[in-house]
Amino acid sequence: MRVTKAIKAEQLHILRTLYPNAKPALEFKTPFELLIAVILSAQCTDVRVNIVTSRLFPRANTPEAIAALGQEQLEAAIHDCGFFRMKAKHILETCDILLQEYGGEVPADFEALQRLPGVGRKTANVVMSVAFHAPAIAVDTHVFRVANRLRLAVGKTPLEVEKGLQKAIPREDWSDAHHWLILHGRQRCKARKPLCGECPLAPVCPSAI
DNA sequence: CTCCCGATAT
DNA sequence: ATATCAGGAG
User: Fold this and answer.
1) What is the per-residue pLDDT across A128-184, written as a single tens digit (0 to 9) for each?
2) In chain A, how long is the greatest CA-to-CA distance?
3) So what's the pLDDT on residue A78?
4) A44 a known binding residue?
C-alpha cells in the first residue's frame, strides 16, 4: 500500500474519531509536577508513574521539597518506576539547577529543558506541549512504533519520525495527534500483539495483518 | 552501542 | 525465557 497524503489525512481522521477526548495520561497539577512525572516515565508505564507521584507529590512537589528529601529518600519514593538510582540523581540535579538558575521555576524553553539532567528531547517536547501549550510532538516508544507502522511518518530515529509527523499533521493538531498515537499504541497497535483484526485503521494501514 | 531497574505480559 | 514499558546518559 502506498500511503498518500490523502490516506494520511484519513488515518488522522479515524484516529480523531477513535480518541475524541485525548489528554495526557500522567497526573500533575503544575509544570514542575509534570516535569518530574515525565522524567519518571522513562521505560515505565504511566499507570505506575501515577501511583508513585500520588504518594510523592503530597510530600514534596517543589524543587526545594524534593531536594530536601535527598538521594536515599527519593530513591525509595520512586523505586517502583525503575532506574531509580539514576532517576533520583537526575531529579536532584535538575532541582538544584531550577533553584540556582531559574528561580525554582520550570523554564518554558525547549533548549533550556534539554540541558536539565534526565531531560532529553522527548521529555522536553512533552513539557513544552503539555505544560506550556507550545507546538511540539514528543516521539516516545508508542508514537515511534505507530507512526512507522501507519507510514504516517517513517524514520529510524525518533527525531526523523518527529520531523515527518510535523510535515504530515496540521500544526493545530500536533498536541491531539501525539495523544491519539499514544492511546492507539496502548489500546490497539500494541508492540507485541497488535489487534489488527479489530482495528478501524486496518483498511488504511500498510502494516495491517 | 550499552547500561540503568524491575514488574508484567506473552 | 524474553520483550516491553510516555528514555536518557556515557
Assistant:
1) 999 999 999 999 999 999 999 999 999 999 999 999 999 999 999 999 999 999 999
2) 56
3) 97
4) no
Active-site residue, from A140, A167, A176, A193: A140
What global pTM score does this model have? 0.96
Gap from A42 CA to B5 C1', Å: 11
Q: Which contacts qualify for A33-36: CB closer than 8 Å, 24 or more apart?
A: A33/A57, A33/A61, A34/A106, A34/A126, A34/A127, A34/A130, A34/A131, A35/A94, A35/A106, A35/A113, A35/A116, A35/A119, A35/A123, A35/A127, A35/A131, A36/A61, A36/A66, A36/A91
Mean pLDDT of A35-62: 96
* Residue A43: all three cell numbers together: 521505560
Distance of CA A120 to the CA centre of its chain: 11
Give the whole-angstrom CA distance, residue A39 versus residue A122. Answer: 10
Domain A31-131 matching CATH 1.10.340.30: the answer reads yes
Fold of the domain spanning A5-22+136-204: Endonuclease Iii, domain 2 (1.10.1670)
Nucleotide nearest to A46 (CA to C1'): C6
A115 pLDDT band, cuts 50/70/90, is very high
